[in-house]
Design a protein that fits this description.
This protein has about 300 residues and is α+β, with helices and mostly antiparallel strands. The chain is about 30% helix and about 35% strand. β2 and β3 form a beta hairpin. The relative contact order is 0.16.
Length: about 300
């Protein structure tokens, strides 16, 4: 096990697709995730947070980690199917846990298949514990009335990053999407949608759009979104969903996709009421075994895949 290098990316992407497609029983496992890109985009954002497993000089698996300030998660982790149940995933997780220790993050986690005792059991051995389901939800773009076009951030300024950091810190101390926002901007994966009240950011959504991103063709995927907590949070969240819809329409997307943990009861119910329907669900696992920002009053979108 060692660093995942740029020359590994094509094979790491192939193994990722075949591994997940095989587990899900697809007729052609290599077509899993279609034309979206989950490996190279994350590697380019933080190459030091990616690890590779090799056997006989051949790449056989990889894992990528993501850091959002005081929060970190890993995924996707994938191993060549002919080497399943051989301890490769466990060996990939060891340097990942060492990386989390160096980062000194307050909350660590992952998203996995809720029905797979093998996956849940593996991650429990590293101190992660299953909590609530996370629903990946979608709806057609244009399903709701849009009041006004959103403000967006392309080339992320220091002032813009600070304003967004101030918001996310109110959701969970130290939560910081700056690296994610810069990665989206630098790779032209999408944009950061903002709902502002003067100079104050009331809500934000880091979004991917189209092929070659985590969204794929025809889709706008909100990788992270949050509305400022406190009185009026539900209204700010509703405005954010409308702003994301307008942004998706402007980019030619036909589907708006976002994840929400079902412990965030009010946000989950609001998405159902707004016409979102679950297309995939899994369980989030936390270390330590604490809620983090999975609270009923947290209007947050993410899924830690």
């Amino acid at each position: 096990v060692g660093p995942l290098l740029e020359r590994h990316l094509p094979e790491a992407d192939r193994i990722f697709r075949v591994a997940f497609g095989t587990f899900l029983g697809l007729p052609d496992p290599s077509r899993f995730a279609a034309d979206s890109d989950w490996v190279a985009t994350r590697w380019r954002t933080a190459p030091e947070a990616a690890f590779a497993a090799s056997l006989g000089g051949e790449l056989v698996g990889s894992v990528l980690a993501v850091r959002w300030g005081s929060v970190a998660f890993f995924g996707p982790i994938s191993v060549r199917p002919d080497l399943w149940n051989r301890g490769v995933a466990k060996q990939l997780l060891e340097p990942t846990m060492e990386l989390f220790a160096r980062w000194r993050t307050r909350l660590m986690g992952l998203f996995t298949f809720a029905h797979s005792e093998k996956h849940v059991g593996l991650y429990q051995r590293f101190g992660f514990w299953p909590r609530y389901l996370t629903a990946i939800m979608g709806r057609p773009v244009g399903a709701t009335r849009v009041d006004a076009p959103p403000a967006t951030v392309g080339a992320v300024s220091d002032a813009g990053l600070q304003a967004c950091r101030e918001l996310t810190d109110t959701v969970f101390p130290g939560l910081d999407l700056g690296l994610e926002m810069r990665g989206v901007a630098a790779q032209r994966l999408g944009d950061t949608v903002l709902v502002a009240d003067g100079s104050r950011v009331d809500a934000l959504a880091v979004s991917h759009v189209g092929p070659g991103t985590e969204a794929g063709s025809g889709t706008c995927y909100v990788k992270f979104g949050a509305a400022r907590p406190g009185p009026g949070a539900a209204d700010r969240f509703a405005r954010l969903l409308r702003a994301c819809d307008a942004f998706a329409a402007a980019r030619g997307a036909t589907t708006l996709l976002a994840g929400v943990n079902t412990a965030r009861r009010d946000a989950y119910r609001q998405m159902l009421a707004a016409g979102f329907r679950t297309v995939l669900q899994g369980v989030c696992m936390h270390r330590p075994d604490e809620p983090g920002y999975d609270r009923s009053d947290a209007f947050v979108l993410d899924d830690w895949r």
